[in-house]
Inverse folding.
């Protein structure tokens, strides 16, 4: 059944106007009135609905039933990702949402090739928000991952952490899997560098700010692999897949 994010109050029996982007999608796939839809507004649970009318720019649906279902992991995890090159960030955001990430923090690191500011940064943030919505629609999540504003690494490290901050490095002596086995589910933030990793100064600042220095093995993972692998390790240890 098609699933769509509908950021507005949803009540049983109400007929609601669907977002213009959803209306356009329904028009393209030629879904006809009477078709069944699943809607969610990010506040938890999902709603079964019936399509009433559809056009190129406008569509409406009647809310039929509420389903109290969730697909969230039993712990909160933030992915603090150093900006990578090209479209890699899109892929990272999409897959992180599929793996259950709670929040995504884009970071401008010293080795980040991509530099965003002003209107360009705002456009990328809006684009990544769209990627989050599409990924949630596809994977069955009824809550959207939070997208934090772009920040520089050093000022971000000075802010209060959302749970335990973990800096991943093949040079660390303690493994992420071992740490996860020894600790119950709890809020976690993974700090991932861009291509080339974080600089020694950034790593030292992270450790000085209280970050744990953990490893996922002797291999050096690409920036678009490391965070997602870490999310999978936690899911294997704590559940949530």
């Amino acid at each position: 059944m098609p699933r769509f994010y509908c950021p507005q109050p949803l009540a049983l029996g109400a007929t609601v106007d669907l977002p213009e982007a959803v209306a356009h999608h329904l028009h393209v796939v030629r879904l006809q009135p009477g078709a069944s839809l699943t809607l969610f507004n990010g506040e938890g649970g999902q709603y079964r609905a019936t399509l009433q009318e559809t056009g190129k720019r406008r569509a409406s649906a009647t809310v039929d039933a509420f389903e109290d279902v969730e697909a969230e992991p039993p712990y909160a995890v933030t992915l603090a990702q150093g900006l990578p090159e090209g479209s890699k960030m899109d892929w990272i955001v999409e897959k992180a949402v599929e793996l259950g990430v709670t929040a995504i923090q884009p970071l401008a690191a010293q080795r980040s090739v991509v530099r965003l500011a002003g209107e360009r940064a705002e456009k990328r943030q809006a684009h990544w928000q769209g990627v989050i919505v599409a990924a949630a629609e596809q994977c069955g999540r009824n809550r959207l991952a939070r997208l934090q504003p772009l920040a520089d690494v050093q000022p971000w490290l000075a802010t209060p952490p959302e749970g335990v901050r973990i800096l991943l490095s093949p040079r660390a002596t303690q493994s992420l899997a071992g740490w996860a086995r020894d600790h119950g589910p709890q809020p976690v933030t993974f700090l991932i560098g861009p291509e080339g990793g974080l600089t020694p100064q950034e790593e030292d600042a992270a450790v000085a700010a209280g970050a744990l220095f953990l490893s996922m093995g002797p291999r050096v993972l690409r920036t678009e692999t490391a965070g997602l692998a870490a999310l999978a390790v936690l899911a294997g240890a704590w559940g949530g897949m």
